[in-house]
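Problem: given the chain below (419 residues), write out its structure.
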Amino acid sequence: MIWVRLILVLVLSFSCFGLDRTDNAFLEDLEHRSFLYFWEQADPSTGLVRDRARNDGSTTHGHSSDIASIAATGFGLTGICIAADRHWITEQQARDRIGLTLRFLAQRAPRSHGFYYHWMDVSTGERRWQSEFSSIDTALLLGGVLTVRERFRRYTDIVDMADLIYTRVDFQWMLNGSQDLLSHGWRPENGFIPYRWDSYCELMMLYLLAIGSPTHAIPPESWYAWSRPKVSYEGFTYVGLAPLFTYQYSQAWVDFRHRRDAAPSGIDYFENSVAATRAHRAFCMGLGTRFPLSFGPNLWGITASDSPRGYIIWGGPPGSPSIDGTVVPYGPGGSLMFTPDISLPALRAMRGKYGDQLYGHYGFADAFNPTTGWFDTEVIGIDAGITMLSAENLRTGNVWKWFMRNPDMPKAMRLAKFS
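Solution.
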């Protein structure tokens, strides 16, 4: 009888989202390899995670080898929670690495009004590439900080440091005189960047963190200050005109399922991302006439990524003249939590067809071009991160569960009139 119950539990766990054992084995391997990126590419003295690394496990050479990404560090902190739950590392290893990282962020890392530089020296935290104190990248860091606060709540030192990091972020300062629209960031040389988060994109978690802040909250009306342009494509209607990653990043942490805001018609942002992903796949399939080797039902994905010509912010619909047949695995990877029925077959087909050329020590390379035969040799931290978190949310919903335990998130959604 015990064995019967155990089998039933296993079957239910594998079939909760329509996943079978083969699917779970694939996702387990992909998540674990993605996690290794954050575990191995974090500096042992700061915990900061490199912006990119080679997919054979070595660091990059040259000007980017010592560059840390504050956003990748947020994904990495969340990955430690996943790894501890899946027993890839011990609870003590997780606690030690989290403590080291939070201690550096709380005590030593350069910051202004609680915001952190977009890019830092991985071993010192010093500013790199003349980067800004970034509002959105600090928000992605806070996603990880607040996730570890809840997953490791029994450790008071982790909770205290996480509280300090979040509560001293002065979101009111980042309004820069506006009543309701946040700035992209601030530079020491010339002050605030002359752009605001004023239209649907990856901004959603930033605004909720700001509205829910226990110390420097902005008005709840800010949620409705940014525009929501409507798009219709191949029978799919949704809001947003930006690349696919913008539909993914905030929702790696914030659970929007079965919630609607008070915008006209009330938007379910989870279903919005489902529609945007399906429209994007249809868009890529339409490119198959131009790039028959690059796009098809199980070969799709164009979003900000490396390319043979360098890093490009591209996507569609609408199309871009820069599209050249390059495919980005983290496009479907970041949408696993929305559309497993199309995202998972795409990833499995990519791995099955291209093998070690594409799938290495840290999982999928950032991009590849089947038309030209180009394969990226590197992985970008935020791209590995969104794939890892999306896969975990598909399988267990744990990242959503941990992050939404933070009382400031449900409070922010109540203030913003979600129902």
